[in-house]
Amino acid sequence: MSSKRTYPIGTPGQKWTMKEKAEWLAQLTIKRSYLDEVVTKIDALRDRFDVSQYGALSYDTEKYPLFVIKSRPWNAQKPTILVTGGVHGYETSGVHGALQFVDEKAQHYSQYFNILVAPCVSPWGYETINRWNPNAIDPNRSFYDNSPAEESAALMKMVKDQGVDILAHIDLHETTDTDETEFRPALAARDGIEYKPGSIPDGFYVVGDTDNPHDAFQKAIIDEVRKVTHIAPPDDEGKIIGSPVSQEGVIDYPLKKLGLCAGLSDCQYSSTTEVYPDSPLVTPSECNNAQVAAIVGALEYILRQQ
């Protein structure tokens, strides 16, 4: 689908000041509960996994604690796998797919790997169903030193504090219709640039690393996911969200240059998943299943290489 929209906040061609950011923030409301929908599921995993709090968002430290889930037994001799969800809090299956993977699959794969899962990096964004944090900053463009996003800074510190090398990082995301109806128009307005309408692909795809693409690894993810949902086709120009398709269902970004979550480490393998939850062909459960399948496809590929 595609759309065209003039954003109601700000003056076209002028970057937002604190005034416009405050106006944007004032229109947002809490739409769902992080504590009820996410933290309760994390707590239910404590009998099988090590769960620890690695921080809390300053917006409300009681409402927005940050949790990491670790497999047992942790063994420094095993390679470590990092799974992240909810970097964009509104992307629901990223959060619940990560939790479903832990519940259903992580114990099996812990015989081969240390597994580190941060299921909801941006809980304020989860509750307000938003891409940004309250400061109108996108956490998934903020994974670099002295990050302006506390969500990103906290996750980077947590990963560093583990004192291990990350072999593979799977970052779970969605591409939604609201990317075009709300979030990209808001981005253009915030930055004082012209909004150019794009299109949302109907189906699953992944984003690899331009500087370290690992085509066979990405293909293994796509092949596993196609068992549970359909793969996004390219548009008439052979692109997905404006980027050339390198193979079926795969595009590549320079992860570190863009400050993306999947580029926070120097891991050998990385992939950012993109589920399309607004497709008439899928259910919320199938979206979660696609996220789980993506992680499984990645891990099975790595096991075949050993």
Automatic annotation (TrEMBL):
Signal peptide: none annotated. CDD domains: M14_REP34-like (cd06231). GO terms for molecular function: metallocarboxypeptidase activity; zinc ion binding. It comes from the Bacteria. The active site is at residue 274. One of its GO terms (biological process) is proteolysis. Residues 30-299 form the Peptidase M14 domain. Gene3D superfamilies: Zn peptidases. Belongs to the peptidase M14 family. This is Peptidase. It comes from Photobacterium halotolerans.
